[in-house]
Amino acid sequence: MASRLSFTPIPDFPIPVETFPKPHQRFPCLTFTLAPPTSYSSKSISSSRRGSPPQPLNAVKEELIQSQSSEPTHDSKTSPPSSSKLILVAGGSGGVGQLVVASLLNRNIKSRLLVRDPEKAISLFGKQDEETLQVIKGDTRNPEDLDPSIFEGVTHVICCTGTTAFPSKRWDGDNTPERVDWEGVRNLVSALPSSLKRIVLVSSIGVTKFSELPWSIMNLFGVLKFKRMGEDFLRNSGLPFTIIRPGRLTDGPYTSYDLNTLLKATAGQRRAVLIGQGDKLVGEASRIVVAEACIQALDIEFTEGKAYEINSVEGEGPGSDPQKWQELFKAAQAQ
Fold it and tell me: What are residue 61's DSSP bridge partners?
């Protein structure tokens, strides 16, 4: 059974990249602010180097970011992160990951991105103050890239890495489901500190039924099998986890857009959210909804140690309201 509530939009996405050399490098990114709702707001960006003049960004219309925090923000130079969290986002420049990062920035939550191509991340999110966003070059497929220093101070992790189910250009450079969804997840989980408060892993519906039709068709090249192997490794790791299994992803990826565009992303009419357990849901899921579900699950205690399937349907949604999301997750467990 599934629970249903409504939702409003936010942003995210995934993409492939290349491997990276050591030592690990941190790349400066940008800090930005949004004005309170019901108006257009301009963003100011400050370089990580002091003294650089702010660069204006295009105005962002409030009604397009209702799913983000509605509290007024302050100048990025003077506003410290609004949370004690430091969230590592693996795959932060991909389809879901882009939206996760944009939403964390909008909430003024400090994040650290683990990406294969830092320049792509900087083109998406701008040059940010390291107190707000850090970009680190690394590839989860390569254990040697996952130096312990990457995880220093990290309190939470959202893993949004992925590739295509069928052979495509994205498979170039050994970017296959086995390497990304199984070996990459295993390597990342193995490298995480035991002090971690929660890791949220984005997986897929159908992972428990990959030998049955129609899932066996999607699994012709092993994507569901390898995602399930990644899930099982995480379950047995002893780390506190939540698994989010979306349906077929829609809305994005916005692979050539900037931060403003990400914040304007909407789920159209499909803003309502269905959450289930037991791998029974069949349908589509907006990447915007999936990104919000990942962020919300970090703070809902009873989601620890559980897997949830998520779909998007027509109707109004929970937006970024924690109480509504808590009700959705709780109702899914009660069915």
Answer: 40
Contacts of 61 (CB under 8 A, 6+ apart): 40, 264
Distance CA 298, CA 303 (A): 8
Q: Average of pLDDT values for 236-252?
A: 93
Task: Give dist(CA 248, CA 215) in Å, integer.
Answer: 12
Whether the link from the prior residue into 253 is cis, omega within 30° of 0, is yes
The mean pLDDT of the chain is: 78
* 140/19 Cα distance (integer angstroms): 9
Which residues lie closer than 8 Å to 83 by C-beta, 6 or more apart?
107, 108, 109, 110
- As a whole number of angstroms, the distance between CA 124 and CA 92 comes to 10
pTM of the model: 0.75
Give which of 205, 212, 223 is closest to 312, Cα–Cα: 205
E-strand ranges in 192-277 read: 198-202, 241-246, 248-250, 272-276
Among 8-12, 24-28, 206-210, which stretch is predicted with the lowest mean pLDDT?
8-12
**3-state DSSP helix/strand/coil percent for the chain, to nearest 5?**
30, 20, 50
Q: Please give the backbone phi and psi of residue 137, each rounded to the nearest 5 degrees, phi first.
A: -85, 125
Q: Is the pLDDT of residue 232 over 50?
A: yes
Q: The tokens of 182 are what?
A: 């199984």
